[in-house]
Amino acid sequence: MRRAMLTTIGIPLSVATSAGAIRCELVSRWRRQGQRAQILRFVQPSLIGLIDGTISTLAPIFAAAFLAGSHAALVIGLAASVGAAISMGLSEALSDDGQLSGRGSSAVRGALTGIATFVGGTFHAMPFLISDTQTALKVAYVVVAIELITIAWVRRRFLQVPLHRSLVQVTMGGCIVAALGALMGHA
After folding, report:
1. pTM for the whole structure
2. Residue 55: which H helix or E strand, with range?
3. Pick from 116, 121, 120, 118: which is nearest to 44 by CA?
4. With 90 as the cut, is the pLDDT of residue 86 above it?
5. What is the residue extent of each domain of the chain?
6. Would 121 disulfide with which of 25, 45, 81, 167, CB 3.0-4.6 Å?
């Protein structure tokens, strides 16, 4: 295995040439951080993105599904996910350089937030690859439920929010946005 040393903004960064070595390096760096730093630098930006991606894209996807069908819901869902990912990634990266707050690299936090936003918005758009809109909607409802449960579990695991309270909070938010999207799609 070959290693090369790069410098990113004055911080030495070891880059390995194999995926396994990269994974080991990331896990090693993760473990060297304290729990509070892990939450501030990695978990919170990812969770913010996942919540935003999941909830903010529900209305446009469901409105498009009811108004124009599966293909439109898929395209609008992917477009909303990409737009939200860029917006959220930039917002996180530009809102705090990490120096005063100790939240770590703004570029890393922005990338994590953007990627998680894209993932959160894309998963429930994928069922609209199914051409039958009613079937796609049923699958999308299940996917959204899984996404909301995952968010609640992450909040419980890393932020010690009781699972039942977290489930109620994220489910209420998701239901409100999805219902508004369905109402707009029937207008």
Report:
1. 0.77
2. helix 44-56
3. 116
4. yes
5. 1-32, 35-185
6. 81
